[in-house]
Every structure is written in structure tokens, then in C-alpha cells.
Amino acid sequence: MVKAYFGYKFETLFGSIGNNGGVIINDIAYTIVDQYLLLLNIKTQEIIQQIVIEGKNIKTTKIAIKDNTLAIGYHDGEIVIYNLIDNEIQCRFFNHQSEITQLVFLSEAVLISGSCDTSIIVWDLADQQLQFRLIGHSNQITALDIISLEDQSLAITQQFIVSGSKDGLVKIWDLNLECSIATLSSMHSEVTCLCVYENYLLICTNSDEVLIKSCQLISGKCQIDNDGIIKRQSFIRAVQCQYVQQKLLILNNEKKIEVYKSKQGKKLQKAENFSQSLIYSTVISQLNKIVYFQAIVFKNLLKIYIFTSDNQIVIKELNNDNVDENNNISISQITGQIKQIKLTQNDHKLVVIASNKCYQFDNETAQQVNCLNNTSNLTSLCILPKNKYFMVGDEQGTLYLVDMNQNEIVFEQKTHNSNINSIECHENCKAFNGLVIMTTEIDKKVNFVELFFNKTQKCLEFQVVNTIYLKENIRSAQFSYDGNYYAFAQMNNIVSIYYCDSHKLYLELYGHSLPVLTFAYTSDDTIVISAGADKSIKLWATDFGNCKKTLKAHTAEVIQIKTVNDTHYFFSGCKDNIIKYWDGDTYQLILQFNEALAGIQSMVVGCIGDLFYSATKNGVIRKYVQTKEQIFVSEEEEKRLQESLMQELQNKNKQQTGFDQGLDQVKKDLTLVQIGQQKLLETEQLMDILEKIKQYRETIDQGEIPNEDLFYNKNVTEYLFDNLQNSDLSSLMKFLHHQHLVTLIDEMNQDIALKQYPIIINKLITYIFNKVDGFGFNSHEIMMKVINIRTQLQIYFKKEKKIAGYNLDILNLMIQDISKNQDDFVFE
């Protein structure tokens, strides 16, 4: 008979605000928590929505928002476009080969992405496809922004992409030409971040300098000027910068935001010494690492939203040059590393200890109910029967009794000399005539504690009634369900079981090759399940202590074992980020949960097994609930095998795609090299012709007879322009020497050239005026020749226009005449 089980599915997050940055728009914070996105109302500090992309268990690295469109970038290079109105995935892109580092919206229909694979891709969201790829950087893209430049000569404003990379280059890309039109390569180290203000680029490198560049668009040509260098107050690497309200804010890797203000509050402008235009103002510090910040001007007040790595958003107001500490707002739930989580007996509340705080959450609403602060870090937790009190221990060896409803410490006492790493209780232990609490510390000491009512103080207190010392350090402890035994997982790779009444050794479970880190009794006390640093799980019979089965369960240390009441089912949590659900009778793996992106730190299962929680090292608590859908082990094995094969196939496809793209790029490069060589050859030939013409004209000027065979008995000017007709004029103008240019202009000024080759001459004049700075004209005579040629061309084109107009008039008269006498004509 095939055994069926009920499955579990992820339902919600508990206690999370964000651990990897976010974006603020209209008092709504879009924050990243591992692979999830949260929408948080800044004013009410309530979570409005959780966005979960089904089947996506990869870290979210970047987000961008435009109107109702949300772009999500992942560590594996995928980009998901999500509609915030319909709450549906609009499309998915897989063209990047590695982590998405930058996302910027050009418009609601155009998205630009940068990646560790060195490429920049422009996406068409309307057609849901790749528009084109910009290739030019040789290392990770570290910055992307949009700059708008006005071309006053053409009276147009055009948008360009600005990119920075670890290769030390800053590039400006023209979306119409789909290529780079300017490159700044004077950086002495990698570009870590940049920002755009009007037509200025503020570029941070991996040093203590901020480079200021101004950009101008003149006749379609992008001109970049060096406007100076700002010396920062710190050598620490800059990771983000923003210019707002005449202030430059720079986030560094030392948990600080440096603030530089514009002198006298003026706008940026050219100065001989730019360091005098922006001066150091103040610094904003946080205790924990700042992941991201966003500065927003609200009613002439600068608010800085700081996203920290410890699940917190801090809002600071910058008033003039000072941070107004009195108006700081901190939005947080669980901060610090989570040590333990426990459920009350009726599953109504989830209690969490992290750092020096103890949190209570409502199981149904996931809202925080209470928070208790302590002076030292808490290390262990136990909820007492009837859900009125719980006990916590700290790293100093102090034990606290806490009233759950009043959220206050009732009694405290130092019972240990060091870290209390485990607190367990049993309400019907016959050896202690009722409730007993067992506390352990890592250095072999075990205390047994009882509660009593102090009539004098009129409060509940506790006292140590017995103490024993073990031979080995203790990792975890637990009572058996019947209260007759207690057991310890020890550093000597053994699980030791003792009698509660006599405290004598009952059994020692040998078999692990490395220290046992966790264990659990099944609810009928017939099996002990242990796991540890050797990555295996062992099931032991409690009657004789024999090992019933060894499971090669995980690829790293197993941290947690939790059993389901009234069954032999159990969960295992591991440092490999995976939770597994097992059947202790058939020794089969039922389900595997891959949602965690950090090692499992703690777990707890509901009293009837209909839900369970997991807490990871990065401070994320996930709630899973039991489904009504039945699952079968064989089907789940097939699914896991299929997912594994699909993952292998995707990895191979990525490698093959990368190889194919590399091969295509090599082919393109070879083609470009061949084209370049051909153009260079043509240019050299034309330069040889110009050199011959120069020598020919000099021979005539000296009164000598030139060699006519040089031009195959053609007119010199005709020979030149016949060769120019099929040539790349832009390449010619790039490589043309000043002397050859003078010869070319002289030939353009010939009557025969103006009459027979006006189109070519018009193109040449356009190139000459566009490249005039590059040629370095100093001769007034040469420029007058060019202007004279242009004037003659204008006269020629006006004359041609009149002739064309005259011909058109005659044609119109003929058409009218035909129309009047239409009956005399037969059209076939």
C-alpha cells in the first residue's frame, strides 16, 4: 500500500523589514528580503503586501520601479517584470549570464540593465524582448544612470546612458546609434559608483577622489570637460552616491554616509579649483552596515532613508549641516542574529530571541505584539506551560522569568558562570513533583530549577534545586515526553540519556563521527533522532540504544531536528540552507524546502503539526502551513530528479550560450577587423593620391612638365573624385593629415569639381566643420577657402532648385492640358 502525506507550502515572512536595500516611492518602501519583496507603508509602519515570485529561490540583487511596473533583478542574471496593479508577472528575461548589478528605467516601456557579465542590455517592455546589447566594458557594471543633454545648435534635448565599470571606464551611450559616443579612461582605479546632476557627472573611484566632469552636446558631438577633483574625507571604498539639494552624499563601506555641501548653497558651476565648490559638511553613521540609502526632498527638508543589513529602515533629517537626531525615525522588527524561536502551546504566539531583544508575534496576523529589551545578548528560550510566562538566558549566565502578557521581567538570577545555551522544561516530572526547568551551559554544568511564589514580595520566583556536572561540553538538552529521562548532545560525539530521579546514566548512543549538535525525542519516546557535524541523521531505539538507521541527509552540518507530535515524522534543518521532511518509520525523504538563502538557525513545529517555522542566520523567519493536497514520495522524488536535471541542463545551456556568444563576438570582432583593414587600405590609397596631386601641382607651379600617366590620362580632379565616390568619407576624415586636407580643399575649389561632384563636396564640407577642432585649423586662408566652397555650393543648389521647379511647372501644365483633353487619349 502506498503511503500518502500532506504537504507544506510557504505562507509568509515574520519580523522582516528588509535586508538588501530597497526603493522609496510616495511613502511606500519597496524592500528586498532575500528573494522576496515587501511593500511597507512608511507612515503606519505596516507591511501592505508581500511579493513572492513562485519557484524563484535566488537572491534578489536589484529592483527598479516606474509607475506601476516593477523590475526585479536576480543573482542568476534573470530579470522579472512585475505589474503592481494586476499583481502578475508581465514577462521574464534570461539574457544576462550572471548577477544583475544595475537596473534603470528610461521610460515605462524601456528598461536598461547592467550585470557582472560586463554587458548592458536595453529591453523593450512593450514587445517583451531584447532591443539591443551594448558591449564595451571588460568588467562588472557598477553604475548606470541617464543624462539629458541639450544641443543648442540643433535645438533638441537627447537622453544618453552613462555607465561605470570595474574596468575603470565611464562610457556615454547613444541609444539611437546603439554605441558608445564618449569614453572616459583617465580613471586610475575602478569606478565604484557615479551620479548625474544636470549635465555633470560625479564619479567615485576606488580611492579618496571624486571626479567631476561636465558634458555638452555640440552639433551632435558629445564633449566632456574635466571640472576638477574633490578630495574625500575617507579612503574607504564608496559604494553609492547621490547629489540632491546642493549636497553630495557618498555611502562608504564603513557604515557611514559622507555629506559634502555646495559652497554658500550655490549650484555646481565651473571653477578653477572645484574642491572649493563642494566642501565637506558632516557624516551620518549607523551601528550596522548600511546597504542602501535614498535622499528625498520634502517641503525643503532633506530626508535620508537608510536601509541597513539588520532588518531596519532609519529615517534621518538633514537640517543645514547637521543631522537632527531628535527627529530620527527607526522602522524595524527583528534586529540582530536570531538565536531561537518557540511557539506557545496553543500556537497563538511566536516568541523570538535575537541579540538583546525578545519579540512576540501573533501567529495569525504576523504582527509584532511585544518586544522586551535586555542589557546583554540572549542565548536561550523556553516557554512555560499555560503560556503565561517564559524564561530566557543570556551570555552572562543570568536566567530571567518574564511575564508574557505584561512583557516585563518578573525575576532574574545569575545561575551560571557563562553562556546559557539551553533551557528545557517538563510540567509533570515525577522526580520533581511537577514542573521542573533544566538549564545548561556549554562548560558541563546543568541546573534544575523550580518555581515558587514569594509571599513576601507577592511575585513568582525560581530557585536552583539541584546541580550536576558532566564530563563533556553540552550542545543541547531535552526531556523525554513521559518525564522519566533527560538527555544531552555532547561534544564527544555521544548522546547521553539519564534517569530524572537518580540522575544516573541510562544509555549512551555512540555512532556519530563528529560532535552531535541537535537531537529530539518522538512523542511516544520510542525513538531518539540525532544529527550533527558529520552531516548525517541517526535514528536510535530508546529501549536498547541500538541505531535503527543512518541517513546521509545533508551536505553540511545539521543544526536542527524537530519532530511532529503523535507521529514519527520529523524535520531537519541544515547549514546548506535546506529543510527536509522525513518519515521516521520508512526512512524516506518526503519533502524538501529550498526557500532559505542562508543557513538554518532555529526551527519550531506546531502542536498538531499543521505548521512550522524556520529562522535563518540572516534574520529571516518563514512560516509554512500544511496543505490539504496529498503528496506521494515517489512523485516527489521524480520532481526533485527532474529539477536537478533541469538545473544541470540550464547550467550547460548557460555555458554553451556563453561559448556561442563569445564565438559570435569573436566573429563580429574579426569582421570588424577585416572591415577596418579594408577601410584603412582605402584611406591609405586616397592619401597616396592626394600626395601625388600635391606633387603634380608643385611641379606645374615650378614651370616643369608633369607626368600625366600618374592619373591614367584623366583630369586630376576627376581622378580624385572618381575614387572618392566609392570610399568611406568618415574614415578618410579621421586619418587625414593636415597637409592632405589642404590639398583636398584646393581640389574641391576647382570648377570641374563643383559642377560634377557637388554631393561629395557637400559631404566633405560637413565632415570638415564637424571635425574642425580635431584638425586644429590655424590658417584663416584655409577656412576662407572652405567657406567660399560652401557659398558656391549654395548658389549651385539654388540654381538647380530653380531648374527643377521650372521643370515641375512645365510638367504640371502638361498634366492639366491632358486632363482637359482627356477624351482624345486612350490609356492602356
TrEMBL record:
<dbReference type="GO" id="GO:0034388">
    <property type="term" value="C:Pwp2p-containing subcomplex of 90S preribosome"/>
</dbReference>
<dbReference type="GO" id="GO:0032040">
    <property type="term" value="C:small-subunit processome"/>
</dbReference>
<dbReference type="InterPro" id="IPR051570">
    <property type="entry name" value="TBC1_cilium_biogenesis"/>
</dbReference>
<dbReference type="GO" id="GO:0030515">
    <property type="term" value="F:snoRNA binding"/>
</dbReference>
<dbReference type="InterPro" id="IPR011047">
    <property type="entry name" value="Quinoprotein_ADH-like_sf"/>
</dbReference>
<dbReference type="Pfam" id="PF00400">
    <property type="entry name" value="WD40"/>
</dbReference>
<feature type="repeat" description="WD">
    <location>
        <begin position="93"/>
        <end position="133"/>
    </location>
</feature>
<feature type="repeat" description="WD">
    <location>
        <begin position="509"/>
        <end position="550"/>
    </location>
</feature>
<keyword id="KW-0853">WD repeat</keyword>
<keyword id="KW-0677">Repeat</keyword>
<dbReference type="Pfam" id="PF25172">
    <property type="entry name" value="Beta-prop_WDR3_2nd"/>
</dbReference>
<dbReference type="InterPro" id="IPR001680">
    <property type="entry name" value="WD40_rpt"/>
</dbReference>
<dbReference type="InterPro" id="IPR020472">
    <property type="entry name" value="WD40_PAC1"/>
</dbReference>
<dbReference type="GO" id="GO:0030490">
    <property type="term" value="P:maturation of SSU-rRNA"/>
</dbReference>
<protein>
    <submittedName>
        <fullName>Uncharacterized protein</fullName>
    </submittedName>
</protein>
<dbReference type="InterPro" id="IPR036322">
    <property type="entry name" value="WD40_repeat_dom_sf"/>
</dbReference>
<dbReference type="InterPro" id="IPR015943">
    <property type="entry name" value="WD40/YVTN_repeat-like_dom_sf"/>
</dbReference>
<feature type="repeat" description="WD">
    <location>
        <begin position="551"/>
        <end position="592"/>
    </location>
</feature>
<feature type="repeat" description="WD">
    <location>
        <begin position="159"/>
        <end position="176"/>
    </location>
</feature>
<dbReference type="InterPro" id="IPR019775">
    <property type="entry name" value="WD40_repeat_CS"/>
</dbReference>
